[in-house]
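[recover] target loaded
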């Protein structure tokens, strides 16, 4: 059985290792550990994670990773919905994410945006700066649409 829980400060090393094993950057996870969600088994094995880097009323969804053993579109969507609810609960107006595959995110109301329409504060985050603009898409969603 799988369950979601908010990450705690002492989860940072295991989240960083989990994210790095998936080939994603683990830089800055400690600074936003309070806005990470962990998907874990009943034996406390990490099966997935997702985080939110908040910058004012804008948030960057990051580190969306599922263990290969639990990889499914359903769990990916559940993780995304959980972090979107957290962002909405914290007063974030718009969330962004970086991706190489855009199709799954359209179903959740995300739209692709050009770099020149991304808020400057997000473009200057270390997490976003490390990716090649030609290799990723930036997508956004306004949370006021959730109702």
């Amino acid at each position: 059985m799988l369950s979601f829980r908010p990450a705690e400060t002492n989860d940072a090393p295991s989240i960083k290792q989990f994210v790095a094993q998936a080939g994603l950057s683990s830089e800055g996870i400690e600074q936003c550990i309070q806005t990470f969600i962990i998907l874990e088994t009943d034996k406390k094995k990490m099966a997935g994670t997702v985080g939110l880097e908040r910058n004012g009323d804008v948030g960057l969804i990051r580190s969306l990773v599922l263990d290969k053993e639990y990889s499914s579109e359903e769990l990916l969507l559940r993780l995304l919905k959980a972090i979107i609810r957290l962002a909405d609960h914290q007063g974030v107006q718009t969330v962004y994410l970086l991706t190489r595959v855009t199709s799954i995110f359209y179903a959740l109301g995300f739209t692709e945006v050009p770099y020149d329409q991304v808020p400057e504060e997000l473009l200057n985050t270390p997490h976003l700066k490390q990716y090649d603009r030609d290799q990723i898409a930036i997508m956004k969603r306004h949370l006021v649409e959730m109702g």
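[recover] notes: The radius of gyration is 14 Å.
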